[in-house]
Specification:
The protein is 68% helix and 3% strand. With 417 residues, the chain is mainly alpha-helical. Strands 1-2-3 form a 3-stranded antiparallel beta sheet, covered by helices on one side. Strand 1 and strand 2 form a beta hairpin.
Length: 417
């Protein structure tokens, strides 16, 4: 827990995290400028009709926010963690009624000429609430149900995101489970988690009958290792029935929750359908752009695939394509090193800190950034379905940049003590 002695200055502010953050934001601004640059158009740095002009404004807003966070008393974030969480849960819930639908997801609020996506701010709010929860002394009842309560903290925003038809954001909240294992979640739960993921994928690849048959084979195999143990047999049968229910739930979510374009993307990834003018086209153009960059890239502002607008969403979800095309393998590796340096530095500082609150929050930050990094790059090269989540600090989007800045700088501030 943070003490009265803490949080009066920022003398302990880690300079390396700030330098990496600045480097990533600069890379983002350069990439967004390149993706929308038109040599024949009149240039203005703060052109609000262009993505780079709007993103520069958001970068300045984020910088001011970062400085403000660094001068706030660090105890504020601990003392008000639950209140912050509640405020943002109410905010994202209200979007269901007053929000604006963009790209099939009712997850935005329009303010003048800008659009805000409140679910992005729910990430740092959830990280704060979880950090305080794990830091607090627990009653006997809370200790028995600690993981149930912890999962509820992430299920609430994830559930609201699903209601908003924002599947990508919903999945991000499950990145916090990485932190759960650091805090002592049983390894068998991890094994079950892997089996859940396998069941999820197989249901989408095959159908309910084949997936249930696969699970039945696993049940029969497990029986050979627990011969004579009736309780374990009953337990395994119960787990099997639970996974059967999961199979039908996944199928229902696929048919009832996902949008047609999302189903098409999943079918394309798993080879169930061919869509040369839709999902296949987008993914193929993404691979072509990255592959055409070769080892050293075509050079800044010289990417042909992005300049001719072959790549979809090249300033947002697919911004990595422009980086791969213009900066090549070398530039892509440098970018990956920057991200991994940021993540590993956060984990290193979190482990060194004596406060459970700081450690848990740090792991939450690292987990969310890592999840975004893996999924965003994975979908641009065809390893995962395109679910539409940004590359942190790089992709165009004021709300994303602002929220990731808050997420990171809260850690920098509380770690300074």
């Amino acid at each position: 827990m943070l003490t009265d002695r803490q949080a009066t200055t920022s003398k302990g502010t880690d300079p390396y995290l700030i330098l990496i953050y600045v480097a990533l934001v600069i890379v983002g601004l350069l990439s967004i400028f390149s993706s929308s640059y038109d040599p024949n158009a009149e240039f203005s740095l703060f052109n609000m009709d262009q993505n780079y002009g709007r993103q520069l404004v958001w970068a300045l807003i984020s910088a001011v926010t970062a400085i403000a966070i660094l001068v706030v008393d660090a105890r504020f974030f601990y003392n008000h963690a639950y209140i912050i969480y509640l405020i943002f849960m109410l905010l994202i819930f209200s979007v269901l009624f007053v929000g604006t639908e963009i790209s099939g997801a009712k997850a935005w609020i329009r303010i003048g000429g800008f659009s805000l996506q409140p679910i992005e701010f729910a990430k740092f709010a959830t990280a704060l609430a979880l950090a305080k929860f794990f830091n607090e002394g627990k009653t006997d009842s809370e200790r028995r149900n600690i993981w149930v309560i912890a999962f509820i903290f992430i299920l609430v925003p994830a559930g609201i995101a699903i209601l908003q038809k924002d599947t990508g954001s919903a999945l991000v909240f499950f990145a916090f489970t990485i932190m759960f294992f650091r805090e002592g979640l049983n390894g068998w739960i991890m094994l079950l988690g892997v089996l859940v993921a396998v069941t999820f994928v197989l249901t989408l690849m095959w159908n309910e009958l084949y997936t249930i048959a696969f699970l039945l084979v696993l049940l029969v195999i497990s029986c050979f290792f627990i011969q004579g143990n009736r309780l374990k047999l009953i337990r395994n049968i119960g787990i099997f029935l639970g996974f059967v229910m999961l199979v039908f739930a996944v199928n229902m979510a696929y048919t009832k929750v996902l949008q047609p374009h999302q189903r098409q993307r999943i079918d394309t990834i798993f080879g169930k359908s061919i869509d040369p003018k839709g999902a296949d086209f987008n993914l193929n153009q993404s691979k072509i752009a990255i592959g055409s960059g070769g080892f050293a890239g075509k050079g800044y502002l010289d990417g042909t695939q992005t300049k001719l607008n072959f790549v979809p969403e090249q300033s947002t979800d697919f911004i990595f394509c422009g980086i791969g095309e213009e900066w090549g393998f070398v530039g892509s590796v440098v970018l990956f090193i920057l991200f991994m340096s940021l993540i590993l530095r956060i984990i290193y500082l979190a482990e060194r800190h004596k406060s459970t609150f700081v450690r848990v929050y740090g792991y939450g930050v690292a987990s969310v950034i890592f999840f975004h990094l893996v999924i965003n790059i994975g979908m641009t090269i065809g390893l995962v379905p395109v679910i539409g989540i940004p590359l942190p600090f790089i992709s165009y989007g004021g709300t994303a940049l602002w929220s990731f800045t808050i997420l990171l700088f809260i850690f920098i501030r509380i770690n300074a003590e």
